[in-house]
Write a structure and sequence with these properties.
Blueprint (H helix, E strand, L loop, with lengths): L4 H4 L7 E12 L5 E5 L6 E2 L1 E4 L6 H13 L7 E6 L5 E3 L5 E12 L4 H7 L5 E4 L9 H9 L5
Parallel strand pairs: 1-7
Antiparallel strand pairs: 1-4, 2-3, 2-8, 5-7, 6-7
Length: 150
């Protein structure tokens, strides 16, 4: 008897994983923060993505910026490393994920290409630090820890 994959999950032990991620606080010349909107959930968030095998955490930050925006940054400045129970996520199948997040800062120089991308339907927008939209919990925590949100 072949069981659907969703039914097999109940017979497999739940697991816990540590996932290393790079997050980027990108600001423009006006010191506005770049956020990306999650396509399905509608929440805004910082640029954040998993580190891949064989790359450094700084390379992961550069790759994530490029993948999410199409832009490159000359410099990524490491700010802090975050971990702990507040970065625990439980997936629908019961698996646990514990994130270790390296936070970087970079400056986006706005040119015509940046303006075109931000003003499109790509879900990218610069926000004044005092008028941030609703964000996911991890982004709020990272901005609070870095002193950019109270």
């Amino acid at each position: 008897m072949d069981l659907p994959a969703r039914d097999i999950g109940q017979y497999i032990a739940k697991s816990a994983h540590i996932v290393v991620k790079a997050a980027i606080i990108a600001a423009n010349e006006q010191d506005e923060l770049l956020l990306i909107q999650h396509a399905e959930q509608g929440e805004w968030r910082l640029l954040i993505g998993n580190m891949r095998p064989g790359e450094t955490i700084e390379e992961a930050a550069h790759r994530e910026l490029w993948e999410e925006t199409g832009w490159k940054a000359e410099q990524m400045h490491f700010e802090a490393l975050y971990s702990g129970p507040e970065l625990r996520q439980i997936h629908a199948n019961g698996d646990e994920e514990y994130d270790v997040i390296a936070l970087f800062r970079t400056r986006i120089i706005q040119d015509h290409l940046v303006q075109t991308r931000v003003n499109s339907d790509a879900g990218l927008k610069f926000f004044d630090r005092n008028a941030l939209p609703p964000m996911n919990e991890i982004s709020k925590m990272l901005l609070t820890q870095s002193g950019l949100r109270s």
